[in-house]
Structure formats: C-alpha cells, structure tokens
Design goal:
heterotrimer, A mainly alpha (291), B mainly alpha (311), C alpha/beta (550), B: 311 residues, mainly alpha, MetI-like fold, two-stranded antiparallel sheet, 14 helices, 67% helix, 1% strand, flat, C: 550 residues, alpha/beta, D-Maltodextrin-Binding Protein, domain 2, six-stranded mixed sheet, 28 helices, 13 strands, globular
C-alpha cells in the first residue's frame, strides 16, 4: 500500500534540508577556520582578525614544528595503548555496573546506587587523588591513566537507562528457561543495546583521546606522555608571547601551531567516526517475543 | 528501605532470598564497587580541606581545623549574590535552550531520507565539539568586534554595529549560543542512538492507525526516547552550579562583569585557586551541595510524574 | 637550625684545613670527601671563619672536583623547551656543568603544569636539592613560610661562605639585598637580577608624525592634539588602541598621573592606594574625554593584544603602548610588511602640567620573580651554592648572558658580540630559540642580566633606544617593593583586594566609557572604603615598614 506524501510533509522536508544545511555550514566553519589557519603564516594570523576562508601565505611550518618533536611518536603510541586497554576495561566495568543497577528486585541496589551517585558530587581534589595514585604505584606509569578512570558514572547511568528499557518480558522468558544473570546479560541485554553501547564506547574513547591533564601531572618521564599532553607541551613551548620574543622570531606562529595541534588531534577521530555511525542508523527489531 | 508489604518478612529471610537469587549479580558488580572505593572514596577525605587551613607541605594531619571560616568568608563577599545569580542564570539558560537543541537536531536528522546527506550532516555537526574552548572563544571574541562577523550579520538585518562583548545585556545570549554551537552536534549522538532503538513496528502500527508525521512523533518517537531525556535532564540539573571558569575567562571583561562574572571566575581572579586550598575547596563543596539539592528535587519530581528517575 | 649552622661551619673548617695544606688547586679527593662527611665539630664563631674565607685562604676555583651532583627542579622556559626536552640538552646546560664541575640532574614539570606539580611535590615530601620558583607570589605564605615549613633553608651563612660573587654584588647593591631577604633578615633565594628595568612604554607612528609635521608628544596636551590630528587627517577610528588593562595599569599615561600599577604606590615612605587618589580621578577624566571624542579605541574593553597588533600594523591605529620586544618590535616588523615606510618611535612618560617633569614610570625594583632556593633535603650544600653563585661574575656571567665564546659570541674590541649562530642560526632556529640554546639571561635564572646583551638582540634603532626614552629618574622609589605578609595577613588581604579590584576594574571602565558620570566619584571612593581599603593599606604599610628595616 502506497502512502501518499502530503503537501505539508513536502514543505517540512524542504525546510528540514535547508535548516540542516545551514546548521552543517555553521558547524563546519570552525574546523575549516582551524584547518586553513594551520597552514597560514603566523604574521598574517597575528595581524588579521576575522573569518579565514583560505590559507593566508600558505606554509607548512606549523606542522613541521609539531611533527619534528620526538615526543609526537611516543605520544601517539602511548595514547593508542591507553585507549585500547582503557576501552576494554571501560566497557566491561560499565556494562557490569549498568547491568547490576538495571535489575529489578535487588535488595542492595538502591543504597549502592546512592553510594555511586554521591561520588559525582563530592570530590577530594587533586592532591588526595594524586596521593592515592601514588599509594597504588600508579604514578609515572601508563596504567595510572587507565585504572583510576575505568568508570564514568555519567556513562554508566546512560547505559543503565538503555538496559532498563529492554522489556522485562524478554528477561522473564529467559529466566523461566533457566538462564542465569550472566547468560541474560550476554545473550539478551548486550545484543539489544548495540546503539547505546556504541555511544558509550565513543564517549569513553573520545574522552580518553582528549585528556591531557593527568598525563601531564603524573608522568616524570616525558616519553610516557600521551598525545594531548605532548601537543600541549608543544603549544606552550612555542608560545613566546610572554617573554622577550625579540627580532627575527616568526610572530604569531603560536597561533598556527595551536591550529595545527588541533588538526593533529582531531583528524584521527574524524576517520574513526564513520565506522561507529552505522550503529545509529539501523532500527532494532525487538519483535523476538510476542506478548 | 522496603515498604511494608501486606505480610511482614523478616530481614534475614529477605536477605537469604536475595542472595540466593542474585549472588551472581553481586559477584559481577564487585569489581565496580572496588573501583569506587579505591578511586572515589579513598581520596574523598580531601574534601575536608574545606574546613581546614591546609598547605601541601603540612599535609592534612598537621593542618589546623577552622570549621566554617572559609564558608562564611565566601558568603560575606559583597559580590556573593551577584555571582550566585550569574552562575545560576547562565546555567539555567544553558539548560533551557541548550538541552532541547540536541534533541531537536536528532529528531530532524532522523527525518532525513537521503542517507548520504544524513551521514554527512551528522558527522559535520559534532566537529565543533573537538575544538578547544580557546579556539571557539577566540572566534567568538573576534566576531563580536565592531568589524566582526556577528556585527556584519546584524548590519545586514538593519541593526548598527556595536562592540557586542561590551554590553552586559548581550552576554548571556552570546554565552549560551556559543555553547550550543559547540555542543549541539555531539549532544545529539545519544538521542540518535536512542531513536534508532525504537521498535520500527511501533511506527508501522501508528501509520496503520492513520497517524501523520506529527502524531507519530508525539506518540511513538518522543515516548521512545523519554527515558534518556529525563535521565540526562536530571544529571544536567545536577551540574547546574558547576560552571568552570575557562570559558568565562576567555569571553569576559570588566565592562560586563555584572552579567558575566560567575563564582569560579571570581575565585580564579583572586589567584586563590592555587594558593588557598581550604577556601576553593569550600566553594566547591558549596556548589556540590546546591547541585545535590537540585538533583534530589528533580529526581523526586521526575519519579512522581514520569516513570524515570535516577534512583 | 643551629645544628645546620654548626654542620656548615665544620664543613667549612674542614675544607679550609685541607686546602690550606695544599698549594694550588690540586685536590686530594678522598680527604675532601671524608672531611665533608665528618660529624659535628664545634668551632670558632662565624665571623672569624668567614674573615678567614675572604682572605682567600680556601682558594676556591671552578671547576669543582668530580663527584658532586645536584638535583635541580625548574620550569623549562619556552625559549629552551621549543627544541630541547631538558636543560641538559642545551649547550648552556652542558657548559654550566662542565665549567662548574658539578653534575646537574634537571627535573622539569610539564609545560603549563608547573604550579600543580610544585604543589604535588610539596605534598609528596620528596624534594630535589634546588628549586627555582616564584617564592613571593606562588608560595602560600611567602618565603618566610617556605623556610618555616621546612621546604627551603636560609642562605645567610651559605652566601657568606660559598658565594663570593653574589656576596660582592649584594654589598654593592643594598636595595637588591633587601629584596631577597625575609623580614627577619634571612636570605631565601638566588635572584635573577634584571639588566634593564624599563620594558614597557608608549610609542607612536613616526612616519605619520613626520608626514603631518608633528613633534613626538611630550605632554598630555600634546597627546590630545596629536591623536585628534590622527583622527581627522588619517581617518582612524581608533587613534590610540590598547587593551584596557594595559592602559589603566601599565601605560605611560597612567604613570603620568602617578597611578600606574593600579595598586599601591609609595609616596615618601607612605603606602597609598592609587585608584582612590586624586591623580586617578584626573586620569580617568582625561581618558573619558578622549573616549567620548573618539580618540581611544571604542572596543577598549574587549580588545586584546593580538587585535591591537593587527590594528597598529594595518594602520587602523596610530599609537599604543606595550612591551618592547613582544609588542613594539613585533608591530614594527608586521607594519613594515604592510607598508615599507612604517615606523614606530618610543614616547616618553608625558607631563601632565607643562614644565613639571613626571615622577613615575613603568619600572621594576631590579629582580625578577623567579629565584633559586636550596631545599632542606639538599645534602651537598656547597655544590648547590657554588653552582648557583657561578653566574654572578666572571666566566659564569659571560656564559649566562652570551653563551660560549667562539660559538655564540666573539670578543670584538673587548666587548662580547653575538655571532650569526644567534642571528642567522644555521639550523634554522629563531633568535629566541637560538638564545635559549646557549644562554639564560634572555629569560631568567640565577645570575645577572646585562643590558647590553638585550640591546644586541633588538632589530631596530628605535627599539634599541626606546628604553632611554622611557626612563624617569627616581621612578623606582615609587614602586612598592615585594613585601611579605604573614599568612593571616595575606588571607585577609587577598579577600579584601579581590573585592576591591573587581569593583575598581568595573567602575574604571564605566567612568572611562561614560556609563557612569565622574560626578559619582565620591560614591566610588566610599564604597571602596567600605570594602576595607583602609585595612588593606594598613597591612601593606606594616609590611613596607618591616621591609625598610630588613
């Protein structure tokens, strides 16, 4: 049966496409600005403000400065290691936690949930956290960037919401068939939550990729710095505006380096995202069980 | 903690039933609990710094207890109310406009038929999220200059050019809109995921019942993502007071302090952040307390009106 | 404390005894070592031993015998960090170790994370031997507290015994001597001694002045006239463009009225809070007039330094004030790229009343904020002290300022001159990076920065001469020196001042931009008094009085 497309719907579609195109344009502009700026000369960047549409006095000097830094290679290596290991631990622990908190009729669920939520509001601060890491021998060590950050309560709650949305009839049916908690988790809950799991994985991955603070704080050995910490070092060391930048220094170069570091940090993510996107487009048939 | 049922079960009996049924669950969650104890609760004692005159060299054991001294110092600042108001209002407007924006974007994207366009737009909208705040704010300040882009647009629509960031009345708009610009795309991802999880059969059923696009949205789509919306809303309310100083510092100047200055930027200016641990921790605790209260209230309301709640 | 003094004395006596048994610099290594590790020996009073020292009995000279290592914690300045991961890798670092004979294990915090890492280091309890830090501003409670807390040691005896270079300098410069002592008279750091004290000042389009037949403005009236002509003849909408905080705090116009620094100034041994003085009112009245007549940049409040550079370079503005190298010189370079006849010339602090010379100027007390201190966990104190003393005279001073002879500088007619290694570095390093490779004086460090060195690195005649133009005789007497407040004082002071500064900043802009009429001046002053300025001034005065008697 063919359903006629109404006139109202046509207008809506046109409006939608126009509006979304505008949004896309507005959202693309900043990264375009950064990309163009990263290959522009510092002098032009320092003396002109406003919209950048094309490279001004094309030069690759910013990228040269970034890539010639020996720490870039170790930075990438470290970050990749941390992301892979982190992601595995993130997902496992978050799934376990979200599963636990999504099950009905568990006696200690509420107090434990409150205990977990409380940690979102009270924080000991940088020094106690650092000292805790020290106590566990996690300083100056890549594991120090992994283990203390294994669970994000925020992400866990999002996943819990998704687990809770799976109809109880499905889990009941499985329970009657003799399935235990672990089986239910693996055979029912996870397969039906692929989209949200993909989102959580994306959130964790991007967050780990972007983080620099603890890397810069706990590593004594610069070869252990993750990528973003390295980029930050490069950025700051090339910022001579605070000091006596005399004579023949390339002025404004710190601006183009800032842009270049952003490109270096962002492009890998852009390449990965399309692979994750497919999880968001398919609809999920939850028609396995008829009521 | 359990409401009294028709018949009373003794605590130990309930405990036995629970353990028998759920022992594997408790086992599964054990590593999670260990994590929280080790990395969240163990360092939590640091919050007590809010009640002490702490210096890193002395450590907590040797620092003097001063009770509520830091808090009263904070409350008696002549700017306290203004800072509170600005922090609250900026957060509130952020929520009011910035919370629905990603939802609307997700809904609109969901309606796009052309797969390529949809994929492209979706990817592009999250890009600003990856740019550092410094870059975005640099652009915003540049565009707000008299000869900047924003003024060109304003002039195009018949207005006059003015330095936008010197007018306290414009600040909240600039702050909120730039935030939406940066985060709307990234924020829509979770809703897109949720939308893709809605059973397509429900749509079919609705269409057969004669529901048009709009009705489908109200009766199928929105209810389908309501749990996510509610939970995220509650959590965002729980972050209301936690406004970091970075964005404010990058955008403001004294001519607009009256709407722009917030708690964290004020504390930052005093240079106390790195020097007076007790004081800044106390302010952090105060923020947490307000946040907590708001979350409890939001959670309660939500539990009563919708079926979703944080706990 | 006493135990340490005794230990030092015994160390010194032992060393003396050993070296007096030798002729020349031959070292009996083992003897020296055992002497140093000997237990406490009570000895003669401090005076007699130090007298003996200054008679040259020890005959110390660099390099020290091998076997001395110090752990040295410092922030790696961007001049060096752009190309090196550690001071160790720079030619300066290598030469320093070679020339002093002391091995240095450098520790650098991550760039931009210095404060966090410093505090974590304190919390941790594991201290290096030497720490370079801004002890006055970035240690809670100041240097006296740092000593009290057991982080660093007082240096009085150490300077006396091991640091002839610094000691001689301090004797000749009692004002510097005061700066590095706590109120109790304890030395706490080895300072960076500034080569020149003026580095911020006003400047104006020289080519426009010539074109319009104008003189370099020397009074506020001149400025009014010149800016008006710029506006009318050159069509600039922002004849004077400058960021608001630079205008109010550092600019020559602020100093013309005696209110530069936007904070406490010294008037004949009395500490005065400038923003409530009559001078400030006059200053703001003038600025308001300029603003209303379009002589000041209308975007005064939002404009930042990068945008000022843009405006100056492209001719949208004709005058500004800024740092010599990072603003004025940079703007000349950028401007020349746009128009070859572009040129900026430095302007002096203007007179307010014709014929009355200005008394204030943007100048410093002579030392930089960063200084090197020796920690309580340092065992090899003599090595640490000798190392830190090296750059205050002789070979060390040359290394500190010019680098390595024959490589980064040559002696020409008895004067050191930088070579092309600096100006046209064969590896393509920019000037500041090349400098960072060979010396430290271009940024900071324990040593004396020489004025000549800096001059050599300036590109244009106008920048090389700028400093003389900006100097005002006696201005330094008005600058409030670095004071130490007690912990309670500093807490109270910080609270009061944050409130006041917020208020002052807001209202200053309101007065200048005309949002508030200057008729409300009295309300403004009263509010500031209510916030507690009198108390804050008292605190400063008390600290200043303590300073005077150090």
């Amino acid at each position: 049966m063919k359903i006629k497309v109404s006139r109202g719907e046509k207008i809506f579609q046109v409006f939608n496409y126009c509006f979304l195109s505008l949004v896309a344009l507005i959202c693309i502009y900043p990264i375009w600005h950064v990309a163009m700026g990263s290959v522009s000369s510092g002098t032009r960047l320092a003396t002109e403000t406003g919209v950048i549409l094309w490279p001004m006095d094309f030069t690759t000097i910013a990228y040269e400065k970034v890539f010639k830094n020996p720490l870039i290679l170790t930075g990438y290596k470290n970050t990749i290691f941390v992301i892979i290991v982190s992601l595995m631990l993130n997902m496992i622990l978050t799934i376990l936690a979200a599963y636990f908190f999504s099950r009905p009729k568990v006696m200690f669920k509420k107090p434990l949930m409150l205990m977990v939520l409380f940690t979102m509001y009270v924080d000991g601060g940088i020094i106690p956290f650092y000292l805790t890491l020290k106590d566990f021998h996690l300083t100056d060590n890549l594991w120090g960037l992994i283990i203390p950050f294994m669970i994000s309560t925020y992400n866990m709650i999002i996943l819990r919401t998704s687990f809770e949305a799976i109809p109880a009839s499905l889990t009941e049916a499985a329970r009657i068939d003799g399935a235990g908690h672990i089986t239910i988790l693996l055979k029912i809950i996870i397969p039906l939550s692929k989209a949200t799991l993909a989102v959580i994985a994306l959130y964790y991955g991007v967050s780990t990729w972007n983080s620099w603070f603890w890397g810069s704080t706990i590593m004594r050995d610069k070869a252990k710095l993750p990528l973003q910490s390295v980029l930050r070092e490069i950025l700051i060391s090339n910022d001579t505006t605070g000091m006596e930048a005399t004579g023949a220094d390339a002025i404004g170069i710190e601006i183009s380096i800032k842009y270049a570091t952003i490109m270096v940090a962002t492009v890998p993510i852009l390449l990965i995202y399309p692979f994750i996107q497919k999880y968001f487009t398919k609809g999920v048939m939850i028609g396995a069980v008829k009521e | 903690m359990h409401r009294k049922k028709g018949y009373q079960e003794s605590f130990s009996k309930r405990l036995k039933t629970d353990l028998r049924r759920n022992w594997s669950l408790y086992l599964l969650v054990l590593p999670v609990l260990l994590f929280y104890i080790a990395f969240k609760y163990k360092p939590m004692y640091g919050a007590l710094i809010a009640f002490m005159d702490y210096t890193p060299t002395k450590g907590m054991a040797n620092s003097e207890w001063v009770g509520l001294k830091h808090f009263s110092r904070f409350f008696s600042s002549p700017y306290f109310w203004r800072l509170l108001k600005n922090t609250f209002l900026l957060s509130f407007y952020n929520l009011l406009f910035g919370f629905p924006a990603p939802i609307i974007l997700a809904l609109l994207l969901n309606e796009v038929k052309n797969a390529k366009f949809k994929k492209f737009t979706q990817t592009v909208t999250y890009l600003p999220h990856f740019l550092s705040l410094v870059v975005i704010c640099g652009m915003v300040t540049d565009f707000s200059l008299i000869n900047g882009l924003f003024n060109s647009v304003i002039e195009f629509f018949g207005g006059t050019r003015t330095p936008l960031l010197q007018n306290p009345d414009y600040y909240r708009t600039i702050y909120v809109l730039s935030g939406i610009w940066k985060e709307v795309g990234w924020g829509s991802i979770i809703y897109l995921a949720a939308l893709s999880g809605i059973d397509t059969q429900l749509y079919e059923a609705a269409k057969i019942d004669g529901a048009g696009k709009w009705k489908q949205m109200i009766h199928v789509t929105l209810p389908g993502i309501t749990p996510q919306i509610v939970i995220l809303l509650i959590m965002k309310i729980g972050n209301l007071m936690s406004m970091g100083y970075e964005k404010t510092i990058l955008l403001y100047n004294p001519s607009i302090y009256e709407t722009a200055d917030i708690i964290s930027s004020y504390v930052y200016r005093s240079g106390l952040m790195n020097q007076e641990w007790g004081y800044s921790t106390a302010i952090g605790l105060f923020n947490s307390l307000v946040n907590c209260t708001l979350v409890v209230a939001a959670n309660y309301i939500s539990r009563k009106t919708t079926e979703n709640s944080l706990w | 404390m006493k135990k340490r003094m005794t230990k030092l004395l015994s160390l010194f006596t032992a060393t003396m005894m050993v070296t007096s048994a030798l002729t020349g610099c031959g070292s009996k290594e083992e003897e020296t070592q055992t002497a140093q590790t000997s237990a406490n020996e009570s000895s003669a009073s401090v005076e007699s031993t130090s007298e003996a020292a200054s008679e040259g009995v020890e005959e110390f000279s660099y390099p020290m015998e091998s076997g001395h290592t110090v752990v040295y914690w410092m922030e790696l300045n961007s001049a060096a960090s752009a190309n090196f991961l550690s001071m160790d890798e720079t030619e300066f670092g290598k030469a320093l170790q070679e020339q002093t004979g002391i091995e240095i294990e450098y520790q650098h915090p991550a760039s931009g994370q210095a404060k966090e890492q410093f505090n974590l280091m304190l919390a941790d309890g594991n201290l290096p031997d030497i720490i370079e830090w801004k002890w006055l501003t970035d240690y809670t409670g100041g240097p006296a507290k740092a000593i009290e807390d057991g982080v660093v040691i007082p240096l009085n005896d150490i300077i006396e015994e091991y640091c002839p270079n610094l000691k001689a300098y301090l004797e000749e410069h009692p004002d510097i001597d005061k700066e590095i002592k706590t109120d109790d008279g304890q030395y706490y750091m080895f300072p960076t001694i500034n080569g020149t004290r003026e580095s911020f000042g006003g400047y104006i389009r020289e080519d426009w002045l010539k074109e319009l037949n104008l003189e370099i403005p020397a009074s506020m009236d001149d400025w009014y006239h010149v800016l008006t002509v710029f506006k009318n003849e050159k069509g600039t909408e922002a004849p004077l463009s400058i960021a608001w905080s630079a205008l109010i705090t550092n600019s020559p116009w602020a100093y013309a009225y005696g209110v530069g620094g936007k904070s406490f100034v010294v008037e004949e041994d009395t500490v005065v809070y400038a923003p409530i003085s009559d001078g400030y009112k006059e200053f703001l009245t003038t600025l308001n007039k300029w603003y209303e007549e379009g002589l000041l940049d209308p975007e005064l409040a939002t404009i930042k330094n990068t945008q000022v550079t843009a405006k100056i370079a492209t001719g949208l503005s004709g005058a500004s004030a800024g740092y010599l190298a990072s603003a004025m010189q940079v703007q000349i370079t950028a401007g020349i790229a746009e128009a070859p006849e572009f040129s900026l010339v430095a302007t002096p602090v203007p007179e307010v009343t014709e014929g009355v010379a200005p008394e204030y100027a943007n100048t410093t007390r002579g030392i930089g904020a960063i200084g090197a201190a020796i920690t309580t966990q340092c065992e090899d104190i003599e090595a640490a002290a000798r190392l830190l003393d090296y750059c205050y005279a002789g070979d060390g001073l040359m290394l500190f300022n010019y680098g390595i002879e024959g490589v980064s500088y040559e002696m020409v007619d008895g004067n050191p001159v930088y070579t092309d290694e600096i100006f046209n570095n064969p590896d393509g390093l920019e000037q500041s990076a090349a400098l960072g490779k060979y010396q430290r004086a271009s940024y900071n460090g324990p040593g004396i920065q020489l004025a000549d060195r800096y001059k050599q690195t300036l590109l244009y005649e106008n920048t090389q001469n700028a400093r003389e133009t900006w100097q005002v005789e006696g201005a330094v007497d008005h600058v409030l020196p670095a004071l130490t407040l007690t912990t309670e004082e500093s807490s109270e002071y910080a609270t009061i001042m944050n409130e006041i500064t917020t208020y002052v900043d807001e209202w200053t802009l309101k007065f200048v931009m005309g949002t508030e009429s200057l008729d409300n001046w009295d309300t403004y002053v009263q509010t500031i008094q209510q916030f507690g300025i009198t108390r804050a001034t008292e605190i400063q005065q008390a600290a200043y009085d303590r300073y005077l008697v150090r």
